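Quick one before lunch.
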Amino acid sequence: MHSATKAEAGSAATGLPSTLSVSDVRAIYDLPLPALVQRAMSVHQANHDPGEVQLCSLLSVKTGGCQEDCGYCPQSAAHGNVEPEAMLTVKEVLSKAELAKSAGATRFCMGAAWRNVKDGPAFERVLDMVRGVRSLGMEACVTLGMLTEEQAGKLAEAGLTAYNHNLDTSRSFYGKVITTRTYDDRLTTLQRVRRAGVSLCCGGIIGMGESVDDRCALLQTLASLDPPPESVPVNALVAVPGTPLELRPKIDPLELVRTIATARILMPKSRVRLSAGRTELSREAQVLCFLVGANSIFYGDKLLTTGNPDCDADQALLKAAGLHAAPSESVSA
Ligand code: SAM
Ligand code: DTB
Ligand code: SF4
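Model of the S-adenosylmethionine complex:
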């Protein structure tokens, strides 16, 4: 799936080489900021309504106690700083989804702190959550860790819109952050999701101590998926006390702008989501991210376990910038 022959990110229309190398990506990322902004804006305008921002609400349906050791994540049992909680009921989840819908969200994303999905009552409950969210007329996305082909098929049958599974960083930096599953494990899950006909939501995190080349390699890998993910979350690390990355310094917001602009240029059709880390960003920095191609956010005062700007602040930001919420893609009828 990630072989060079399938790296068909380029075309005459995008001005990108047909097989994209990390140095090609780096040449874009390192452009003088005005040139980078201008190029990203023109790709964005040619492929999207630049005034539109998708509002996605996020809910942790099974929090904490995870068997993986992802260095950024407060939910890993290895770091033990989030108390494991019982899985939410379908009713609890659907009442949160209704609230999110009435606040203006069109996509409802549900996360579980699992290494992988196990068949049985918990998975059946997730399938019911997916069906319930869809019956509210919202798009449904879940992130549950690794999946088998059969499980991906069941999620598709339940009406799942998208599956979130991030590559997080470059293949070479990955082992410094996560040791309990491999980059290839992640690529295999992504392939299973694709084969089941579910949209892919796949991106990464910046600010974990990776080099600029690592960031560019992540973007090169994402853009070379065939086709690239329909949505690409770009998270800025939320450095949570107790995690191995707790002392990482905050990223320079302009690095986030460069990452988003480069993602937009490489993946013209994808939704690029300005994801975790917005509480640390000024309104101006967020607006710059929207200008260069971010067209989706997590909306609601909580991500999975950490904070996010509240709905009023985001509505005020959209209004001040003259932006509007995207209509739901799934429910035109
Ligand atoms: N357990 C599932 C998995 O990892 O596949 C799903 C949930 S996991 C929390 C989803 C994604 O959230 C991670 O892949 C990572 O990219 C992002 N994430 C987790 N903790 C984060 C943090 N502290 N800062 C930024 N992003 C984070
Ligand atoms: C993604 O890329 N970011 C979201 C979502 N997918 C599941 C998660 C961000 C989590 C931030 C840390 C927390 O709240 O626990
Ligand atoms: Fe578990 Fe997902 Fe957190 Fe990794 S990111 S520790 S898999 S919940």
